[in-house]
Amino acid sequence: MTEAVNQPDQPETLVGGEKDLFSKFDSLIQMRTDLLSTGVTDPFGMVMERVVSPTVAICNGRETILLGTYNYMGMTFDPDVIAAGKQALDDFGSGTTGSRVLNGTYAGHKAVEQALCDFYAMDHAMVFSTGYQANLGIISTIAGKGDYIILDIDSHASIWDGCKMGDAEVVPFKHNDIEAMEKRLRRIPEGAGKLVILEGVYSMMGDIAPLKEMIAVAKKYGAMVLVDEAHSMGFIGPNGRGVAEDQGCLDDVDFVIGTFSKSVGTVGGFCVSNHPKFEIMRLVCRPYVFTASLPPSVVATAATSIRKLMDGKAKREHLWENSKVLHKGLTDAGFQLGTESPQSAIIAVIMPDLERGAAMWEALLHEGLYVNLARPPATPANMTLLRCSLCAEHSAEQVQQIIGMFTRAGKAVGILG
Amino acid sequence: MDREETSARIAALIEPFNKKGVAVTDATRFTDDLEFDSLTVMDFVAAIEDEFDIIISMNAQAEIENYGQLVDAVVKLQG
């Protein structure tokens, strides 16, 4: 008997250089190997050993200021939020072990949806297990075969994946280009359903969208409008409802998508809407139905945090101040930023290339500052960015410290003259 | 508009994007031969859409790999 007959199912061993399913990742593996061979710390492998507060953690044994966590309103260590989570763990256990439409809806899930309705002053709220799933679920479900999705080319991955999962025709337009959007809306065949997808704040460059003008154009062509306000909730707008509220056009938004993993300070995603038929989504939206619901402690912390964010005016003002000071400080130091003026709590510092971006990222880490290194293909125009996200809990002193760290690191790496 | 005229107009539009001056035939591939990246594709598609007043959705773009397929698609989209 030959060996081959003894082991009929054993896959053939591939020897070096032969193609297999992983061959498509070869160029990325090479890029990563080249980068790490320069001796730089892996920017995508950092571990926070201890988290001291919303703005400070211990990384590699060193106290580090956190400037890349999207923890805009600093709710992660709020005593009321933590108490609500602990109480829910005691009262409802560690998890629901079920879908929202079966055994996974507890009192806490209804309470957090009510908190969202109150926060946005809207009729319906639907909570998903992550923000990614909220976009995936809503977009793929409402735009079907024969419908058209018109979206900004710089949309977040979760929006693109929602488009890919659905059957609609997908038509992108140039970032924030109102005329390009209108041209595409005008060309859509008569009678086809239309969904325009925009974001309030675009997270790579930290710029905002001219939502008022864009939504007016979308409505002129009879399109429904979905706005992802993940990076503006809690911070932008008189009540923290986002860029659409700030520009006075929230009433014309059909669907607001948001997340609990930024200003709210935990994890989860949602859609709020005034559409009279919205509740049917709970039965037809697969990323809502076919996954387990959020743990009771998570929805309890989220509900408490959302209600506290309604009264966050003083924190919002301090966060704006932080954003303005950091933007001016980095501009004066000689850095090139993603926006000419501060538009959100994100400030993107443009690096000349990936190699020097990674070196700068590491130099900042040695200074005791953590920021996000964003690299192609996730970035617009294949740029390498050091993305800073400010927190309402950053003190004025910390912001000055940050500017000093950037200046020293920039000179050490040779980005600043 | 017939295929020949459509092809001539697309050929004119492709010029500024054809940085290496590759000789374009129906078999010329956008990614492999012309080395278009995603940003170039967006600008090039927008130029064609404006020229012919059509929409080439991402779904349609996914089926187009070479120049000949693009000309065929534009002829068809003009109805």
Describe the structure.
The complex is a heterodimer of chains A (417) and B (79). Chain A is an alpha/beta fold. Chain A has 2 domains: 138 residues, Aspartate Aminotransferase, domain 1 (Alpha-Beta Complex); 232 residues, Aspartate Aminotransferase, domain 2, CATH 3.40.640.10. Chain A has a 7-stranded mixed sheet, sandwiched between helices. In chain A, strands 1-2-3-14 form a 4-stranded mixed sheet. In chain A, α13 runs parallel beside α15 and α14 crosses α15. The longest helix of chain A is centred in the last third of the chain and has 21 residues. Chain A is globular and about 60 Å long. Chain A starts with a helix and ends with a helix. The N terminus of chain A is likely disordered. Chain B has one domain: ACP-like (Non-ribosomal Peptide Synthetase Peptidyl Carrier Protein, Chain A, Orthogonal Bundle), CATH 1.10.1200. Chain B is 53% helix and 0% strand. Chain B has 4 helices and no strands. The longest helix of chain B is centred in the middle third of the chain and has 15 residues. Chain B starts with a helix and ends with a helix.
Short descriptors:
heterodimer; A: about 425 residues; alpha/beta; Aspartate Aminotransferase, domain 1; Aspartate Aminotransferase, domain 2; seven-stranded mixed sheet; 15 helices; about 40% helix; globular; B: about 80 residues; mainly alpha; Non-ribosomal Peptide Synthetase Peptidyl Carrier Protein, Chain A; 4 helices; about 55% helix
Question: Summarize this, please?
Answer:
By secondary structure, chain A is α/β, with parallel strands linked by helices.
How are the SSEs ordered, and which strands pair?
The complex is a heterodimer of chains A (about 425) and B (about 80).
Chain A: H1 3-6, H2 26-37, E1 48-53, E2 56-59, E3 62-66, H3 79-92, H4 107-120, E4 124-128, H5 131-142, E5 148-152, H6 157-165, E6 169-173, H7 178-187, E7 194-199, E8 201-202, E9 207-208, H8 211-220, E10 224-228, H9 243-246, E11 255-259, E12 269-273, H10 281-284, H11 286-289, H12 296-309, H13 313-333, E13 346-351, H14 354-367, E14 369-370, E15 372-374, E16 384-389, H15 396-413
Parallel strand pairs in A: 3-14, 5-6, 5-7, 7-10, 10-11
Antiparallel strand pairs in A: 1-2, 2-3, 4-12, 8-9, 11-12, 13-16, 15-16
Helix pairs in contact in A: 3-12, 4-12, 5-6, 7-8, 13-15, 14-15
Chain B: H1 3-14, H2 38-52, H3 58-61, H4 67-77
